[in-house]
Amino acid sequence: MKQFVIRILSTAFVVSIFALSNAQAQITLLAIGNLTQSRAGTYTDLSHLNYTLENGVAANYLGGLGSAITYAGGRTFLALPDRGPNALSFDSNVDDTVSYINRFHTITMNLRPNQGSGLPYTLTPTLQSTRLLWSFTPLIYASGDTIVGSGVPPLNHFFFHFFTGRSDNFDPSQNSGNPNNARFDTEGIRVSNDGLSIFISDEYGPYVYQFDRITGARLRSFQLPDSFYVSSLSSQGSIEISGNASGRVANKGMEGLAITPDGKTLVGIMQNALIQDAAEGGSAKNLLRIVKIDIASGAVTHQYGYLLTTGSGVSEILALNNNEFLVDERDGKGRGDGSNAKIKQLFRIDLSNAVDISDVDGLTAAANAVSKTLFVDLVPLLTNNNIAASNIPAKIEGISFGADVKQGRTTYHTLWIANDNDFLQTVNDPSGNPIDNPNQFFVVGFTDADLAGSIYDPQRPRPFDE
After folding, report:
1. Contact at 8 Å (CB) between 382 and 300?
2. pTM of the entire structure?
């Protein structure tokens, strides 16, 4: 009898492993596309800015637009650059940041079946428009130093006060959550269900703002918990980190932003542990806080804990349905870092029964972190498609769902993945040889079976013509 039971259990184990392998077998790379030009020129966006930034880079440079990506209905996506081109060393007092006006791009993605060899589909992204972000009410800008002058963008006038990436554009008498600051390091973007407005999260505050999609005007600022803000501000990140005992780590603020498919809730995730959580040591060093924001009231209603597995931080969060999310956990290895990519993983989490950690310390929060399940490991997926590990982008930061596609009898849901190329057209590979570093998009197909019981019910925003 005992042997009979063991045999049944062994058979069940083999069957379950076989079913799991079959479920995962459907995840496939469908297409890759690059965006390096527009009708205005190569590596030129459609902002129509015709001046140069403090470091000599063109103010209309097209780069970094994979910091975030979101589906906007039909064939349209919105893509978000971060605070601007700061890879060129020129002024350490401002961490080499410039008065790059924050913006988002509208892109048409033409995904077509491939009639030749290679991946199943071809992808042609086309830049349709560039929208600059601004405030009707005045913002706080810095006077600058002997290398850089005022942080006020040349485009400013009485009604338009533009947000920029300059790290010194803040009021030192207020904490980092002051919405009057002009500095803005954009990292997450989602569109409202009606398609008329967008929500953007940032690393400087961290801030979460709502903007009008047509004009780029800020409509609203959401107040985050005080524990997320730092009280001692500096234009140099290292000084800002050492000068605070609590709050977000400089340049590691609210990296990811999701919106629930019902359009009622924003869900933001920090890139790394808060200073006070990390100081507790142990598992709290790997604790990332997630916030839920009720859009109607503007209130933060819950906090949840997420523990890093092997990645050094999180870059994005995306809603599968109103309760379940994909989390983009990664390291900094790969193209752009001069190394081979290692950790680029998407995990599935469920917040429906998660423990609220709003009022608890880091170690307690870590002990009550959400459970997570690996959804897809991008490095083997890409290397199995003849993409060298050294050519997988280091900063895979943007993820979004898109429209379903059909291949034969199989219907694939599509997951769109974008990289932040740091505004660098070329970088060195591990051997020191220069290689192209384009703004790049990967389209991954998956089926319901790959979700292991989760319901695929993503946001479906109303298509919108600008």
Report:
1. no
2. 0.93
